[in-house]
Write a structure and sequence with these properties.
The protein is an alpha/beta fold. It is 49% helix and 16% strand. The strands form five sheets. The protein has a five-stranded mixed beta barrel. α15 links the parallel β8 and β9 (466-469). The longest helix is centred in the first third of the chain and has 72 residues, at 68-139. The chain is globular and about 105 Å long. The two termini are 52 Å apart. It binds flavin-adenine dinucleotide.
Length: 713
C-alpha cells in the first residue's frame, strides 16, 4: 500500500513534468527567460516566489527529474548568493531525502531479498564508514545527484545521517552554482561553471575525510603505543599464547613460512577441544549411541538388551580417544614442525614482550614483532545462590569427576539447553542417568528454527530426559536445584549438577588489562583480527563471535598471516559460510541462514524441504528421523542462502551445502551431480530435486504434452 502511494505520487510529479512540458524551463535559455519574468513578480510577492521555488525544487529533486543544476543557477539569479544558497541547500537536502526514502520503500526489500548475502558486506561497510562514503560521493561531482539518492536508499544507512551528510557534502557545490547563477546572463553553458581547477578541488575535498581517517588511525596507533619502548631487535617474529585449536594453527602457519615462533601453553596441548570439549564429548556420545542401539535392537530385527554400563570403562575409552589424538597436538610434533613450544603461563608485559612463567620453573622473557592471543574460553557459572556449595561440574571438571565413578550419576541436572547441554543430556540419559534438563528460554537450541528445537526436545524426551524449558534456576539447596516456572517452584534433586549455560572468553590475568588491550565479551579486534595494537592479534574463542574449533583454526590463518605479512597485504576474516553441528542423535547441522534469521533480517526466502523418511538408505538404516531444509531467495533463483539438516550424520551431509555456498554452486548443479546410491547424502540431491519440481516450467510442459499427443498421431 505504502509502495503504491509512493509510486502514484512519483508518477503524478513525472506526468506533470511532461504534460506541462516543464523540461523547457530547465534549459539554460529557459531559466534565463523565466528568471527575468520572475524578477518583476518577486518584487511584489517575494515570499510566494521563495515558497513556490522551494516546492518546485523539492519536487524535481524528489522525483529524480533532470533540472537541479539549472534550478540552482536560477536561485542565484533570483535570490542572490546567501539566500539562494540557503534555499537550495535545504530544498536539495529535502528533495534528496524524499528520493532516498522512495527508493528505500519501493525497492530495498526486493533488492535485499535477491542480493541479501552480497549486500551484507556493503551494509557492514556503510555501518562503519557510511558518512565518509556519502560525503565523498556528494563532494565529487562525477556521481550524479539523483543516482546517489537512489542507490543510498537501497542501503541501511540511517536517514538522519543521510540528511546531514548530504547537506554538508553538497554545500560547496551549491555555493559555486548559486554564485554562478548571480551572473546568469553571462553564462553560455553549464560546463563552463566548474572549471577543471574547481572540479579538481572538489575531488581533493572529497578525499579529505579518507585522509583524515588515515591520519586519525596513525594517531590512534601512536597513542596506543605511547609509553611503551619498542625494542630495536626481536627474539621472535611471533609469540602465540595458548595451544588450543587457534594457537596450534597460528604457530604451525608461522613455522611453515619460516618465521621464528614460540607457542606457550599453560595447561594441556590441544586446549579445550582435545582435552575437555569436542573429543571427549564425541567419544562419550558414541558409547551412548551404542547403548541406545542395544536397547532398541528390535528396530534392527534383533533382541533388545539392556546394556551394562561400567562407567569407568566408558570414561576410560573416552580418555583413550583423547590419548590417541594427543600426539597430533603434542609438544614433540610441534617442535618437529619448527615451533618453539614452551610449557608455562604467558603474560604480555608490553606490546612486544611476553614473559613466561615456565612450568619447569623460572621465567623467560621474549621480545617479539607480533603476538597472537589464543587463550580460549571457559565455562560460565551463573551466580545462583547455593551454587558454590553444590559441587557443580562443568565441561572442564566433569571428565575427571566421571573417571572416579563406577556408574553414571543416578540423577543428573543439566543446566542449559544449548548444544553442549543437549549433547550431554542425551548421552548421560542413554548411559543410565535420570537426566533433567533445565533451560530458561522457551525452547532448546534457541538459535535454531522452531521445527529443529521441537525435534531436539522430542528425541531427548524419547531417551528419557525430562526437559524443563521456561524454567529459571533460582537457587540450590544442598543437592536440589530449585527452578521458577510460571510463578511456581519446581524442585530438581540431583546427584550431579552439570552447568552448561555458555562459555566466556579468557581475558584476564595475562596482561591484556595492564597494557590496555580493549576487551568486551571477547578481545576487541578489527576485521583483520588485530587489536588496537596493530602487532597484537586474537583468534579462536577469545576473539569470538563463534565458539567452534573450525572457526578457531580459520581465524588463526588470518591472525597469523596478517601478523607476519600485514605490512604488505592484510586479509579480512571471511565469516560468510560457517557450518555448525550439534551432535545430538539425530545430528543437527546448519550453514548460512535459517528461517528465523531470514525473518529477523527481513530477507524473503523460499523454503524447500525433503523428509528423510523418504530416503532409501535412511529407511534401510532405520534412521528416518529428520529432514533437509534449504533456503533460496524468493523469486526463483537457485542460490543456497542456508541449509539445515537434521538426521543421522547431518554433520557430514552439510559439507555439500558448505561447499555450494562458499563457491556459489546452486541447487541446479547439486541436482546435476551424481550421488552414489544408496547413501544418506542423496538427501541433498533430493532436496534440490524438490526445489526444481516447484520451479518446473508448467506452460512449456503443456506444449510438450501437446507435442507428444501430436506425435502419437
Ligand atoms: C563440551 C564441549 C564440546 C564441544 N564440542 C565442539 C564440537 O563438537 N565442535 C566444535 O567445533 N567445537 C566444540 N567445542 C568448542 C571448542 O572446544 C572450542 O571452540 C575450541 O576449543 C576453541 O579453541 P581455542 O584455541 O580458541 O581455545 P582453547 O581450546 O580453549 O585453547 C586455549 C588454550 O590457551 C591456554 N591458555 C590460556 N591462557 C594462557 C596463558 N596466559 N598462557 C598460556 N596458555 C594459556 C589454555 O590453557 C588453553 O589450552 C566444544 C566445547 C565444549 C566445552
Amino acid at each position: 500500500m505504502k509502495k503504491l502511494a509512493i509510486l502514484a505520487a512519483l508518477a503524478a510529479v513525472i506526468a506533470a513534468y511532461f504534460v506541462f512540458d516543464l523540461g523547457e524551463y530547465f534549459t539554460l535559455a529557459g531559466v534565463k527567460a523565466l528568471a527575468a519574468d520572475l524578477a518583476a513578480f518577486q518584487e511584489r510577492n517575494a515570499l510566494a516566489v521563495i515558497a513556490g521555488f522551494f516546492i518546485a525544487y523539492v519536487l524535481v529533486t524528489g522525483a529524480s527529474l533532470p533540472g537541479a543544476a539549472i534550478m540552482t543557477l536560477a536561485a542565484g539569479a533570483l535570490f542572490g548568493v546567501v539566500w539562494g544558497t540557503v534555499i537550495v541547500s535545504f530544498a536539495s537536502t529535502i528533495g534528496a531525502t524524499l528520493a532516498f526514502l522512495s527508493s528505500r520503500h519501493v525497492l530495498r526489500d526486493t533488492i535485499e531479498a535477491r542480493f541479501g548475502e552480497r549486500l551484507k558486506a556493503i551494509n557492514a561497510g556503510l555501518e562503519r564508514d557510511g558518512a565518509f562514503y556519502l560525503f565523498s560521493l556528494r563532494m565529487i561531482p562525477v556521481f550524479p545527484f539523483f543516482m546517489v539518492n537512489l542507490v543510498m536508499g537501497l542501503t541501511r544507512i540511517r536517514t538522519t545521517t543521510y540528511m546531514w551528510v548530504s547537506q554538508l557534502g553538497m554545500l560547496l557545490g551549491t555555493i559555486v552554482y548559486v554564485n554562478a547563477g548571480t551572473q546568469l546572463a553571462r553564462i553560455d553553458s553549464l560546463s563552463g561553471i566548474a572549471s577543471p581547477a574547481v572540479l579538481g578541488s572538489f575531488v581533493l575535498l572529497g578525499i579529505v575525510p579518507w585522509l583524515a581517517k588515515g591520519i586519525i588511525g596513525v594517531l590512534q596507533r601512536r597513542k596506543a603505543y605511547a609509553g611503551f619502548k619498542r625494542p630495536r631487535k626481536f627474539d621472535r617474529n611471533m609469540v602465540v599464547i595458548g595451544a588450543g585449536s587457534a594457537g596450534l594453527v597460528s604457530a604451525l602457519i608461522a613455522a611453515t613460512v619460516k618465521a621464528k615462533v614460540t607457542l606457550v601453553e599453560a595447561h594441556k596441548m590441544g586446549g579445550d577441544c582435545l582435552n575437555t570439549g569436542c573429543v571427549p564429548s564425541k567419544a562419550l556420545i558414541k558409547s551412548a549411541k551404542v547403548a541406545s542401539m542395544m536397547r532398541h535392537a528390535d528396530r534392527y530385527g534383533l533382541t533388545p538388551a539392556e546394556p551394562q554400563v561400567p562407567f569407568r570403562e566408558v570414561i576410560a575409552r573416552v580418555q583413550g580417544a583423547v590419548k590417541a589424538i594427543e600426539p597430533h597436538d603434542s609438544v614433540e610434533r610441534y617442535t618437529g614442525l619448527g615451533v618453539d613450544v614452551v610449557e608455562g603461563y604467558a603474560k604480555i608485559v608490553d606490546p612486544w614482550t611476553v614473559e613466561i612463567a615456565r612450568n619447569d620453573g623460572g621465567t623467560q622473557r621474549l621480545t617479539t614483532r607480533s603476538i597472537v592471543i589464543a587463550s580460549g574460553a571457559e565455562p560460565v557459572v551463573p551466580p545462583i545462590p547455593g551454587i558454590e556449595a553444590s559441587g557443580y561440574l562443568t565441561s572442564e571438571t566433569m571428565w575427571d569427576a566421571f573417571a572416579q565413578m563406577d556408574a553414571a550419576p543416578a540423577r543428573v541436572a543439566v543446566l542449559g539447553g544449548g548444544p553442549i547441554g543437549c549433547e550431554l543430556s542425551q548421552a548421560l540419559a542413554r548411559l543410565g542417568s535420570k537426566v533433567t534438563q533445565v533451560e530458561m528460554a522457551e525452547t532448546l537450541l534457541g538459535r535454531e528454527d522452531g521445527d529443529v528445537s521441537a525435534l531436539a526436545r522430542e528425541v531427548l524426551e524419547a531417551d528419557g530426559v525430562t526437559v524443563l524449558t521456561g524454567h529459571k534456576a533460582a537457587r540450590i539447596e544442598g543437592r536440589t536445584l530449585i527452578a521458577e516456572h510460571g510463578g511456581a517452584e519446581v524442585r530438581v534433586p540431583f546427584d550431579a549438577l552439570i552447568v552448561a549455560v555458555g562459555r566466556k572468553a579468557r581475558l584476564t590475568g595475562f596482561g591484556l588489562e595492564d597494557i590496555g588491550v580493549d576487551t568486551a565479551k571477547t578481545v576487541v579486534t578489527d576485521e583483520f583480527l588485530a587489536t588496537k595494537f596493530p602487532n597484537i592479534f586474537a583468534a579462536g574463542d577469545v576473539a569470538g563471535p563463534f565458539q567452534f574449533t573450525h572457526t578457531a583454526s580459520h581465524q588463526a590463518w588470518y591472525a597469523s598471516v596478517n601478523a607476519l605479512f600485514g605490512m604488505f597485504r592484510k586479509f579480512k576474516a571471511d565469516y560468510r559460510v560457517i557450518p555448525a553441528v550439534t551432535f545430538l542423535d539425530p545430528e543437527v547441522a546448519r550453514v548460512g541462514l535459517n528461517e528465523r534469521e531470514a525473518a529477523e533480517q527481513g530477507i524473503a526466502v523460499e523454503v524447500t524441504r525433503y523428509e528423510l523418511d523418504d530416503l532409501d538408505r535412511a529407511i534401510a538404516e532405520s534412521e528416518t528421523r529428520g529432514f533437509v531444509k534449504i533456503l533460496t531467495p524468493a523469486g526463483g533463483k537457485d542460490t543456497v542462502l542456508g541449509a539445515t539438516i537434521v538426521g543421522a550424520h547431518a554433520g557430514e551431509l552439510i559439507a555439500e551445502y558448505v561447499l555450494a555456498m562458499k563457491h556459489g554452486i546452486g541447487l541446479n548443479k547439486i541436482l546435476g551431480t551424481i550421488h552414489a546410491y544408496p547413501t544418506l547424502v542423496e538427501a541433498n540431491k533430493f532436496a534440490a530435486g524438490n526445489w526444481k519440481k516447484a520451479h518446473k516450467p508448467e506452460s512449456l510442459l503443456k506444449w510438450v504434452e501437446r507435442y507428444h499427443a501430436w506425435m502419437r498421431g
